[in-house]
Amino acid sequence: MRTSQYLLSTLKETPASAEVISHQLMLRAGLVRNVASGLYTWLPTGLKVLRKVEAIVREEMERAGAIEVLMPMVQPADLWEESGRWEDYGPELLRLNDRHNRPFVLGPTHEEVITKLVANEISSYKQLPLNVFQVQTKFRDEIRPRFGVMRGREFLMKDAYSFHLDESCLKNTYQKMYDAYCRIFERLGLDYRPVIADTGSIGGDASHEFHVLADSGEDDIAFSDTSDFAANIEKAEALAPQGTKPEATEQLTKVATPNVKTIEEVAAFLSVNVKQTVKTLLVKGDDEIAPVVALVLRGDHQLNDIKAEKISGIATPLTFASDEEIQTAVNCNAGSIGPINLSIPVIVDRSAAHLADFVCGANINDMHFTGANWDRDFQNYSVEDIRNVVEGDPSPCGQGNIVIKRGIEVGHIFQLGAKYAQAMNCGVLTEAGKNQILTMGCYGIGVSRIVAAAIEQNHDQYGIKWPSAIAPFQVAIVPMNMAKSARVKETAEKLYSQLQQAGIEVIFDDRKERPGVMFADHELIGTPFLLIVGERNLDNQQIEVKNRISGEKSLMDISDIMNLFA
Ligand code: ATP
Ligand code: MG
Ligand code: MG
Ligand code: MG
């Protein structure tokens, strides 16, 4: 590729609209351009990276035994009615009508389409198990698209779906996919953690998320500093003031707020930014000085109106584990509670766990729960348990202590069970000749989000430092004053064709630009090697090689250059 015939599109200034470093660098390095909120054009350099991520994902899916299909992005509403999600999915589902006024959706995910397909195509247990995947554009009308392609509305996902006769077969495939995901993130060169996750609205049983560790991540993950135990603390999201996910607020959430000294401090914190506060508190835990604090937040109120109220009174012991139990609490105290919205996260001081039976304050006078209490027994830990951990706690797995860091969710796998197969009558004839509904797994990877996540983890003040597996170019040729030196031009051209012939992705900077401008562009784009061809070094048949990752510069004999790529 010659820069003179390419769309380099680098920018000198950092666009003010971009909050996180990956978004800034994706714009500056000419990877993407914004079209509308959450919608992006991938420029040539960005597309190269995207395709590389996609290729690694595809290879590992195939290695895991999944086979590729491609489903339409536009899906008929009746499939969504059949699964029940036409009602349930909420405003992230973009609905539209065709010219005949028939309703459709832009697919945010493809369980319905694939389950329907398998219901039609598969009739015998002999055709199972089946694992299919696609790499397809999804559309989710995110309430707050942000951080560039990290949370777009249109984005590229690899989604896979597996179908089984029984649970043990599902578990087997689930494990294969889990392992494939680990290989993918290793090959991508990313620092990641698989975490035990919540299954949310999609339903189902076991689930893991894969997180790339980065400060800009929107989730907190807690993991052991010595074992591979990890879990997501995504439920803190239930406290986000806007865009509160219905599925997140439907359950009570217990979040530790250990370093708070007074109720007033809690209130002050909360009125600023609840989500942030909870995260801060989670990290800076110190139970000794903490008072017993519990808050009940109504799912529908304005978070900046919250008032924390003092805990008082002792009533019947109760574990806040399910809506029914909350309802019981409500009923026990109906006189003072009034009509209560069950979509309520609870913030509770961790030290309250040592006590039993306290009242949770609400933002409206006299709206209290009594008898709040729960079990902090980590022996059989679950997602519920991990939500209460604080940095430094012994890990529930028995090895090491808990570390809490921000993560970017780049993958998510679920054991779905029969939810969709049941709703859409997806079954086969068993060996005994009976119809049996299938059990399913589903497995997503955010292909476009990975590009941003990789940059969050790999950059410096000059730009992107791509892991070599996904660098858009392996090497850039930067000739110095080519217009004035026939020798420089000839050497650069020769190197260029040599590298091209060897199948190495090379970008030849043949622009009439000052060397400083060219260096800055290639550092920004993050090409792993820069070959600087200059008059002076040619006297010794040498060129200067700069390693973008280590920053090292060295002189190399031209005849040895190909060894860089051996
Ligand atoms: P998030 O919690 O970030 O909203 P999710 O849990 O809704 O993601 P899944 O339904 O699990 O997402 O989808 C599988 C993968 O698709 C996610 O792990 C993530 O990598 C990616 N993804 C989801 N939403 C977006 C988005 N708006 N933009 C880019 N990638 C996304
Ligand atoms: Mg989401
Ligand atoms: Mg999520
Ligand atoms: Mg998810």
UniProtKB/TrEMBL annotation:
Q: Which family does it belong to?
A: Belongs to the class-II aminoacyl-tRNA synthetase family. ProS type 1 subfamily.
Q: Which reaction does it catalyse?
A: tRNA(Pro) + L-proline + ATP = L-prolyl-tRNA(Pro) + AMP + diphosphate
* Entry note about domains: Consists of three domains: the N-terminal catalytic domain, the editing domain and the C-terminal anticodon-binding domain.
Q: Which CDD domains match?
A: ProRS-INS, ProRS_anticodon_short, ProRS_core_prok
| Any one GO CC term of the record | cytosol
Q: Which NCBIfam families match?
A: PRK09194.1, proS_fam_II
- What protein name is recorded for this chain? Proline--tRNA ligase
Q: Gene3D superfamilies annotated for this entry?
A: Anticodon-binding domain, Bira Bifunctional Protein, Domain 2, YbaK/aminoacyl-tRNA synthetase-associated domain
Q: Which organism is it from?
A: Thalassotalea piscium
Broad class of the protein's primary localization: cytoplasm
Give the Enzyme Commission number.
Answer: 6.1.1.15
Name the InterPro entries for this protein: aa-tRNA-synt_IIb (IPR002314), aa-tRNA-synth_II (IPR006195), aa-tRNA-synth_II/BPL/LPL (IPR045864), Anticodon-bd (IPR004154), Anticodon-bd_dom_sf (IPR036621), Pro-tRNA-ligase_IIa (IPR002316), Pro-tRNA-synth_IIa_bac-type (IPR004500), Pro-tRNA-Synthase_IIa_type1 (IPR023717)
In this protein, which residues make up the domain named Aminoacyl-transfer RNA synthetases class-II family profile? 33-467
Where found?
Answer: Cytoplasm
- A Pfam family of the record is tRNA-synt_2b
| Assembly and binders | Homodimer.
Q: What does this protein do?
A: Catalyzes the attachment of proline to tRNA(Pro) in a two-step reaction: proline is first activated by ATP to form Pro-AMP and then transferred to the acceptor end of tRNA(Pro). As ProRS can inadvertently accommodate and process non-cognate amino acids such as alanine and cysteine, to avoid such errors it has two additional distinct editing activities against alanine. One activity is designated as 'pretransfer' editing and involves the tRNA(Pro)-independent hydrolysis of activated Ala-AMP.
Task: State the UniProt keywords alphabetically.
Answer: Aminoacyl-tRNA synthetase, ATP-binding, Cytoplasm, Ligase, Nucleotide-binding, Protein biosynthesis
What's an example GO BP annotation here? Answer: prolyl-tRNA aminoacylation
In alphabetical order, the GO MF annotations are: aminoacyl-tRNA deacylase activity; ATP binding; proline-tRNA ligase activity
